[in-house]
């Protein structure tokens, strides 16, 4: 076997999977690119699909907030994602293909939301534009993007079934983490995380605060957010919590941005 050609560096000859190597970098904190950014994820199923009655007041609230705060609005897909997934699963499409199809739907909602927010500087951006955000925000733009992570055909296989595990909640969280955002707020159609689906069981109890570990240990049948986000939250370097609020009630987003006790906060 010939000699390996090397460049002098601290990782010379490393496999990049050695446990000791990982631990040696654990003390290094990554820079926070936009530490005063608030990532606001607008659910498709819980918000966009309700149309004008819910969306227009929410647009006005976001627009007003953007005058004094740095926001990144992230959209979900909603009912059309469920439709395309239903068809794709029925036809036996692989998980990666389903992820590609679902992403196109959330992109449509991003275009809609950007146009609605245009009076406030709403601007549709794509994943490749994220590193341009610091300058865009300084110029007064209100960036809007879709939440589906760009894994596409490389989407991770789910533990069970075919539905892509990384969807728009997860994508919003990953954007907030890599940008070093101040907060990540998931806007839904319920007051937060409940012990059961409150639309199925009206007696379900609101959980105002919980850790990712505790929530995973509960092994709930149904949740208002994607389970994969909880695993990512445990390992996050910058973002140590996410909050769930009801977008059908005005004022909940600004209260969440201020750190007031509203909705549900899930901590690392």
UniProtKB/TrEMBL annotation:
<dbReference type="InterPro" id="IPR036393">
    <property type="entry name" value="AceGlu_kinase-like_sf"/>
</dbReference>
<dbReference type="InterPro" id="IPR001048">
    <property type="entry name" value="Asp/Glu/Uridylate_kinase"/>
</dbReference>
<feature type="domain" description="Aspartate/glutamate/uridylate kinase">
    <location>
        <begin position="39"/>
        <end position="235"/>
    </location>
</feature>
<dbReference type="GO" id="GO:0005737">
    <property type="term" value="C:cytoplasm"/>
</dbReference>
<dbReference type="InterPro" id="IPR030669">
    <property type="entry name" value="MoSto_subunit_alpha/beta"/>
</dbReference>
<keyword id="KW-0418">Kinase</keyword>
<dbReference type="GO" id="GO:0030151">
    <property type="term" value="F:molybdenum ion binding"/>
</dbReference>
<dbReference type="Pfam" id="PF00696">
    <property type="entry name" value="AA_kinase"/>
</dbReference>
<protein>
    <submittedName>
        <fullName>Uridylate kinase</fullName>
    </submittedName>
</protein>
<dbReference type="GO" id="GO:0016301">
    <property type="term" value="F:kinase activity"/>
</dbReference>
<keyword id="KW-0808">Transferase</keyword>
């Amino acid at each position: 076997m010939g000699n390996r050609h090397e460049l002098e560096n601290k990782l010379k000859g490393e496999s990049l999977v050695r446990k000791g190597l990982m631990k040696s970098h654990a003390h290094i904190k990554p820079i926070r690119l936009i530490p005063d950014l608030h990532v606001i994820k607008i659910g498709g199923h819980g918000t966009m699909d309700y149309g004008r009655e819910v969306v227009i007041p929410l647009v006005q609230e976001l627009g007003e907030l953007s005058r004094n705060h740095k926001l990144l609005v992230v959209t979900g897909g909603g009912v059309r994602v469920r439709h395309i997934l239903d068809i794709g699963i029925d036809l036996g499409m692989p998980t990666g293909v389903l992820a590609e199809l679902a992403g196109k739907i959330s992109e449509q909602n991003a275009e809609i939301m950007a146009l609605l927010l245009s009076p406030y500087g709403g601007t549709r951006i794509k994943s490749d534009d994220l590193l341009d955000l610091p300058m865009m925000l300084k110029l007064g733009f209100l960036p809007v993007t879709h939440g589906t992570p760009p894994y596409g055909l490389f989407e991770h296989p789910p533990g069970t079934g075919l539905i892509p595990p990384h969807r728009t909640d997860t994508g919003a969280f990953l954007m907030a983490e890599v940008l070093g955002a101040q907060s990540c707020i998931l806007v839904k159609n319920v007051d937060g995380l409940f012990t059961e689906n409150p639309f199925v069981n009206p007696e379900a109890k609101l959980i105002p605060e919980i850790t990712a570990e505790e929530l995973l240990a509960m092994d709930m049948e149904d949740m208002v957010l994607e389970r994969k986000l909880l695993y990512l939250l445990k390992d996050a370097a910058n973002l140590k919590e996410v909050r769930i609020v009801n977008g059908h009630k005005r004022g909940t987003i600004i209260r969440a941005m201020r750190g007031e006790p509203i909705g549900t906060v899930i901590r690392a």
